[in-house]
C-alpha cells in the first residue's frame, strides 16, 4: 500500500443537471506519483469528474483537494498545479513545434530566455528535436500527441489529466506514449487517466476505479479488479486419451472437450490451485501436452460491473 501523500482527495462529490444526477457521491484518494485510471461506459460521469477536478465546472456538493489546494477556495492554485491534455490536441498546426512550446512558455510568463531553454529541453525529452522547425500540421498523430503533452509540461504541473491520450494512434506510437507517461510518473508527476482502451489502463494504472451511474462500483489495482469476476481457469491439453481419462476423473473440470483432449479447471487466479494441480498430475504420472492459465481481463470486469446507457 502506497505511503505517498494524496495528490487528489475527493469526498462526497455530487453533480446534477436539473433532475439528472451525474455524480452521486464520489470518493477518491490518489497518491502522489501514481497513475490512476477512471473507467466507465458513456454517460457514467467520467468527463464530468475530470471537468470538476480541473476547475472547469463546479460541483453541487463534496470536498476536493488537488495538490494540497482546496478546489472551492483556491481554484487558481489548483489550476497552477495541473495540466490537462485532451483527446483533441491543442497544438496550433500553423506554428512549428518549437513555436508552440515558446507560445506556452509566454503564456506561463517564463520570460524569453528561460522560455526558449524550456522549449529546447522539452523538444529533446519528447524526441521532437528533429522536427522542431517543422509546422505541427505536418506531424504524425503520435508526434502531435507528444507535442501536446510537452506543451502541458511547460508549466511543470504536479498533476496531469490525460483524456484518451492514445486515441487513433498506431500500436508503436501508443507504446511510445505509454513509456513517456511512465517516465513522467518516475519524476513524481501524478496522472489521472481516462481511456476507452482497457488494455491501456491495465498496462499503466496503479489503481483503477469503475464508474457506473454516477457511483464508484469497484476500485483497486488491475489484478484486484480481475479477481472480482469469475471465469479464471487452467487449460490442460493431453497427449493421449489415457492421460485425458485419468485426469478427467481426478481434477473436476468446469468443461471438457473430448475431441481435443482438453479440460478447463477452475482457478481463482492465485498459485495455490495451479501448484496443487501440477503436483497431482505428477503424482499420478499423467502427461500434459499443453498447460495455460487464463484469468479474466479488464474487459470482463468492465462488462460485469457496468451497464451501457
Describe this entry's structure for a reader:
There is one protein chain. This protein has helices at residues 46-53, 75-81, 97-107, 112-125, 141-153, 171-186, 198-204, 222-226, 241-251, 272-283, 298-305, and strands at residues 6-17, 20-31, 35-39, 61-66, 69-70, 82-85, 159-163, 190-194, 207-212, 215-220, 233-238, 255-257, 262-266, 288-294. It has 309 residues and is an alpha/beta fold. The strands form three sheets. Strands 6-7-8-3-9-10 form a six-stranded mixed sheet, with helices on both faces. A four-stranded antiparallel sheet has the order 2-1-4-5, covered by helices on one side.
Overview in brief:
36% of the residues lie in helices and 27% in strands.
**Could you give a short account of the major beta sheet?**
6 strands, mixed
Helical segment tally?
11
Unreliable spans are none
Number of strands: 14
Which radius of gyration do the C-alpha atoms yield? 24 Å
Please identify, by name, the CATH architecture of the largest domain. Answer: 3-Layer(aba) Sandwich
Task: Please indicate the count of domains.
Answer: 2
Overall 3D form? elongated
| CATH evolutionary superfamily of the largest domain | P-loop containing nucleotide triphosphate hydrolases
Structural class: alpha/beta
